[in-house]
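Known limitations

Files may contain more than one protein. Parsers should not assume a single record per file. Below, a two-record file is shown to illustrate correct handling: read the sequence, read the token line, then continue until end of file.
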Amino acid sequence: MGKARSQGNADVAIIGGGIIGIATAFRLAEAGRHVTLIERDAPANAASRGNAGAFAFPSILPLASPGILFKAPKWLFDPLGPLSIPPAQFPSVLPWLLRFFRASMPDRIEASTAAQAALNRLSETETATLTKEAGLDHLVRHDGALELYESEAAWRASLKSWERCEKAGVEIEHVEGARLAELQPGLSPRLVKGVFLPQWKTVSDPRDYALALLEAARARGVQLVAGAVSHLADSTEGVMVTLEGGRTLKAGHAVLAAGPWSNRLTALLGERLPVTPERGYNTTLPPGSFDLKRQVIFPAHGFVVTPLATGIRVGGASELADFDAPVNYKRARHMLDKAAGFLPGLKREGGTEWMGSRPSMPDSLPVIGRASSSPRILYAFGHGHLGLTQSAATARLVADLILERTPPIDISPFRPGRF
């Protein structure tokens, strides 16, 4: 074998060009660090491309919860349900699922909710700072979101969860009748109750937002390198990042922010963390398909409908399946059928279907912290449905660790070794 070719040195090498990696690159470049961002595909081309575009700061309750224990058995084997596992995937997903059920126990819920609430509060302030510094305020919409219920009983069943959110500082408004119709005209009469979340924000388009942030980062000196990382190791000379084909890059620190692909590299470092690909599906309809005032959420069905500059996006759901599992676009069509029932005026023609994998942890908390094998390698992945929401806060926390500053919140709940 020939000698590996050098790609150059950096203060920080960030592996993963999604919204987490991009935001972290921006924050470190703002602090004067020489940053190289490494991406195996086009930047912002995975979950950062097709997500629902929400800064879901009020979303502090983990998916793992006592209530899920009653719903999950029915959902898991329904191929069109809100949470599904294709039968062929069950053996490989089972270890993750057992941890998920353990995280759903009452003794774990309070701690994970408190940690998520603290991270989301930081996310709200850090996002405001980041978008202002990067010149992206014009891409953020402050319309709030509306969670919808089909019966009084379903709404009442949600009240305990909303009380927990209010105790954590989330602003909510219970609505019905004329106020519900004012917030979103054209709803089906089947929808009788709603909860309005004024702190919820959306972006004009998640990929456009991520790419605009990338351009702001590159304007501050961030270098973008195309390639898949095959090896990652600490050495006396620094962190050595090896790309497929033999190129190498040496850095003072490395940040692993490769979403659901991250565990392939943590395994090389001797850590097998339970991050699993969680597929989401959507259909983006052309602009004008419905007069949608703000994002609307259907919690009983596991999907949302979002107004974007690029159209109306109908999507969500969770499918625990590996990268090479067959794609089931029936899930996207099933959500579109349901959306048409709840939004009778929705025009369903001309939509574009999409599927992408989120990086999900059993306790719904991301992994943020130093690798056990090296203090110079940091992890920043596993954000599940909240990657965009928590991107600015994660960037702040990673920067604090690298710059040896005290983080503004307790990061121990996100430590890699918690499993």
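...continuing to the second record:
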Amino acid sequence: MQITDLQIEQKMWPLLRQAFRPMFLLGATFSALAMMLWLWVLSGAVQLPVFADVMFWHSHEMLFGFVAAIIVGFLLTAVQNWTGLRATHGRALAVLTTVWLLGRISLLFGAFLPPYVPIIIDLAFLPLAAILLAVPLIAVRQQRNLFFVPVLLLLALCNGLMYYGRLTGRFDLQQVGSQNAVLLITLLMAIVGGRVIPMFTANGTMTQKVQPIVWLDRLSLGSLWLIFALQITQLSSFIGAPIMAALYAIAAVLLATRCARWKLWITLKVPLVWSLHIAYWFLPIGLALYAVHYLNPSVTISTATHALTAGAMGSMILAMLARVSLGHSGRPLQPKKIMSLAFLLVIIAALLRVFAAWLWPAYTFDWYLYAGAAWVIAYLIYVFVYLPVLTTPRADGRPG
């Protein structure tokens, strides 16, 4: 970076120097706040003036508010390493962050607004992020990571389907939007996790990197693409429950085999690594629960979905937030010890939400409250520990 650019960089508010800074900080804060509000609603303590209803708000905002913010923050930060070009920062990042923030506010207070206001604001976020991601990738003709752009647009389509289903009274379309958003994010986690976990494991444990088996990786990701395609087009309803159960089971076995090769047991002294391994294990667990659901509906879609959301997404996001925030702020990859507690709490939250209510249904409401409380504490730990990291310049004096 030229000296004039560096001088401009040093005058810029640190929070706007890289996308991970505002997106991670606000996304993590919002996840804790949204979960607290959801728990208060469940307990009858408050009634929220949200867009549509609280069930829609909870499912939508944890996906398209919280998770989408983290995905965008990660991608718009990583693209600088991928391309060597300066990624989104400054005014462009401020605009993107403002659009995201206005979306959260307008949906939370949607009862006071015409329906089109929160919809238009919220639907603008992912396409805008896709454009900002596409520009540097196209500029250097980097095709390997260009597929993330249509993935963001597909995620925006799922968001639109949720709104369309809600406005037209088509609950089935609303479900198509939310469920396929979960599957698409699952696919992203499988892709990104497959790229980074073997490398992080080797670096963190000082062992040889486990080399990928090409056919296993292609079948694993291909099975997820196939499931997503069948679900988004609704062809899954025509091919029948037994076949869908088989497809989910195959995907679960393939991902479990892939994950087992990375040797979780050698990472137990490295919190930044074992947290990622356990998060990835929730992917085959969630897919296996989907398979069981198609054969035995007593295992609900909600249970399977929360294995992927509360389990895989919640755990992997927290682990990646802790690592990326240190690495991209020029700090050693040595998180504070309290982050191990945060990692454990979010895993406990997932286990309680997925399995406790299933095994001990008489205490379902209590398990939900305990799981939500563990989630809130886990993410608040991250926010308070990393607030100075995200709001101050890089420790090594470099731009970003």
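Parsers that stop after the first record will miss the second one. For reference, the second record is described as follows. The first helix runs from residue 3 to 11.
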